[in-house]
Design a protein that fits this description.
Length: 383
């Protein structure tokens, strides 16, 4: 694994030393505008860095689904700060923002140039240390950063091996203050990563192993973490699941759930986890016949009893298990429930069909297939 993972309750107290080991003397700390900056753990991080003699420049400017403008401005601020290490503290948004801003330290232009393929990443940016405060994105171990183009209403990821963080400090204690809604939406994102990568065309025995373990951990811990945020064992299980799913999809890739969730998020401001959580069972149902065996593995990993069932029925249990989990943790069933109008089907499908990972779905999906899936998720098509 290219990322050094430090995983323990209380691990953040060692961030100063980890930063030193990377050769850091001046850190540019990227975090969110509200929640994360006000977290008591933020103070602990600053203290540990200061004790290690590291100067810290705080950049608490990242919104949910960071925009091209936020990244470009942050990259300019990073240059001015003259830092030699970047720290991301927060969920997927600050982490992805920090990654993209770091890329622009070694590469000219706007992040938009890299999203649109007008420029290629040729040099590594600054080394990155990630401290995730949610258990979902897996971004602490992946080579990609998702950026939102608010003008074109598109979410596009930039990807390069040099983007992979050098160190991930995963401290489940930090996750105990995460509200139930955020726990649910980020947790279902992790489940989506694990399932999409498990069934992916690009899956291999190594990614299958980590993804299946991630699915098991989510099956036994997500409800508990939503029900009681201070359940440290459940928080640890989810943090590990998110990490394993991140390792899995960084190697095996994602599929149509993310392909559809991106335009839903970019066009209607629906949180990434919610958009994925809505789409997940619809895409699974549509892809089921491509691989009954793998879907029945998912059913078992989520705790379903498939004893005595033919494999087709066992595979269907995977969809049932995901729906039951969603219902328990309060993830909506349809796009209509979150305010996406039926008139949006076309623009969602047109965007989703261009998703670069679409061919990674186990069932070959063309525009007509995506239309069926989105119409079902909209609640305007039953079969
Ligand atoms: Fe995701």
């Amino acid at each position: 694994m290219p990322t050094k993972v430090v995983f323990a309750p209380g691990a953040i107290s060692g961030i100063g030393q980890e930063c030193r080991n990377l050769g850091g003397t001046k850190a540019f700390l990227v975090t969110g505008r509200t929640f994360t900056k006000n977290s008591p753990y933020f103070t602990q991080i600053i203290k540990s860095l200061n004790e290690a003699g590291i100067e810290v420049h705080i950049h608490a400017e990242i919104e949910a689904d960071p925009s091209v403008e936020t990244i470009d401005q942050g990259a300019a601020d990073m240059k001015l700060a003259n830092a030699n290490v970047v720290i991301a503290f927060g969920g997927g948004s600050p982490t992805d923002a920090a990654k993209a801003m770091s890329v622009l330290q070694g590469n000219e232009g706007s992040v938009l140039d890299y999203m649109r393929g007008r420029r290629q990443i040729v040099k590594a940016g600054l080394p990155l240390i990630c401290v995730p405060t949610t258990a979902g994105s897996g971004s602490e171990v992946t080579a990609a950063a998702v950026v939102t183009d608010r003008v074109a209403k598109e979410k596009i990821s930039i990807s390069h091996p040099s983007i992979i963080p050098k160190i991930a400090i995963i401290d489940p204690v930090l996750h105990t203050s995460m509200p139930p809604k955020v726990t649910a939406s980020t947790g279902i994102d992790a489940l989506t990563h694990a399932i999409e990568a498990y069934i992916a065309v690009q899956a291999n025995p190594l990614t299958e192993a980590v993804c299946l373990q991630a699915i098991r951990l989510i099956g036994s811990n997500l409800r508990r973490a939503v029900a009681n945020g201070s359940d440290l064992e459940a928080r640890g299980g989810m943090a590990l699941a998110s990490l394993l799913a991140g390792i899995g999809f960084n190697n095996a890739g994602l599929g149509a759930v993310h392909g559809i969730a991106h335009p839903v998020g970019a066009q209607f401001g629906i949180a990434h986890g919610i958009a994925n959580g809505i789409m997940l069972p619809y895409v699974m149902e549509y892809c089921l016949m491509a691989d009954y065996a793998k879907f029945s593995d998912i059913a078992v990993a989520l705790g379903e009893d498939i004893h005595g069932m033919i494999v087709r029925n066992a595979a269907k249990q995977a969809v049932f298990a995901v729906k039951a989990l969603k219902q328990d943790i309060g993830i909506p069933d349809t796009l209509a429930e979150v305010g996406v109008p039926p008139s949006a089907v076309n623009t969602i499908v047109k965007d989703a069909v261009t998703y670069r990972r679409l061919p990674n779905s186990p069932r070959k999906l063309e525009e007509a297939d995506l239309r069926i899936i989105v119409e079902r998720a909209m609640g305007i098509r039953l079969i």
